[in-house]
Design goal:
The chain is α+β, with helices and mostly antiparallel strands. It has eleven helices and seven strands. The strands form three sheets. Strands 3-4-5 form a three-stranded antiparallel β-sheet, with no helix packed on it. The longest helix is centred in the C-terminal third of the chain and has 16 residues.
Length: 281
């Protein structure tokens, strides 16, 4: 079904190449953000809801037939609530269930079992109450801590904007030298030494652009372009360009011309040149 796939109705007309980074402001986004986008959207996430098989072919025990192995990911539904918690890569599965052998199958949704738990970030020195799943807790224990879990797991496997923003916040604190432990120098140096290998994987620009949605990245690049824009009136800019062109052409009258600021131009406005003398009525 086309409606159950992430591409949706686009499959009816074939897969269309995205133009997010080739047109408009998207073409001016830095490589640092494109690296995060590739990690978040283009990389294949780890298998969570199925067990992938190794090899290219497999033999059926009952019939002896040899079939090709196809590890096709299940289409998942990621609701808005998933971005407010830490689901550990789990999502909602939409499918059908045969509840009675003599009746038709019926639609069914498999939803992760959610629970409220408290996690501790050693770098941020904070306790946070969040919605998690059993797989999230298992991943935290397997990676020996909440910070290690976030820093080791790519954005495509986190599958949560809350987790991605926390990961960015941890990287920023590591970059700033763990300011939460300013009054404990020994512990501060120990934490920086423990998590320094993660920080070396990113540049300062990559950390700055990490965790932004496409709309947030577009707004950020737009603000940067606006700050670099010349704020002077257009008439002064055009006048400066005209004088430069006249100087390049060798016009003698333009050689000694100097541009004046906005204050000089405002003082010699057309209002100051008017000599208005009221008549005696």
């Amino acid at each position: 079904m086309a409606s159950a796939t992430p591409q949706g109705a686009n499959l009816l007309y074939g897969l269309r190449k995205s133009k997010k980074f080739t047109e408009g402001l998207g073409a001016q986004l830095p490589v640092a953000y494109k690296k995060f986008w590739d990690e978040w959207k283009n990389r294949q996430p780890a298998a969570v809801h199925y067990v992938p098989k190794d090899g290219m072919f497999e033999r059926e025990d009952a019939t002896g037939l040899i079939n090709p192995i196809q590890n096709v990911p299940l289409p998942l539904l990621v609701p808005l609530e998933a971005h407010k918690g830490l689901w550990g890569g789990e999502a909602i599965i939409k499918g059908f269930q045969k509840r009675n052998p003599y009746k038709r199958r019926v639609p069914h949704f498999w939803v992760p079992v959610l629970k409220r738990s408290v996690v501790h970030s050693q770098v941020l020195n904070e306790y946070m109450a969040v919605t998690v799943t059993d797989r999230t807790l298992e991943q935290i224990h397997d990676n020996h801590g909440f910070d290690h879990y976030l820093l080791k797991t790519p954005a495509c496997d986190l599958r949560s904007m809350l987790a991605i923003r926390l990961k960015k916040k941890i990287l920023l604190d590591l970059q700033g030298g763990c300011p939460k432990y300013a009054d404990q120098p020994e512990k501060q140096q120990a934490i920086i030494k423990e998590y320094a290998p993660y920080l070396s994987q990113y540049t300062a620009e990559e950390i700055e652009w990490y965790g932004l949605t496409y709309v947030e990245a577009i707004n950020k690049i737009q603000n940067q372009l606006n700050s670099q824009e010349d704020k002077r009136p257009h008439k002064l800019i055009f006048r400066e360009k005209l004088i430069e062109q006249l100087k390049e052409a060798g016009i003698k009258e333009a050689q000694g011309t100097e541009l004046k600021g906005i204050e000089d131009s405002s003082s010699s406005s057309w209002l100051s040149k008017l000599s208005f003398k009221p008549k005696n009525w």
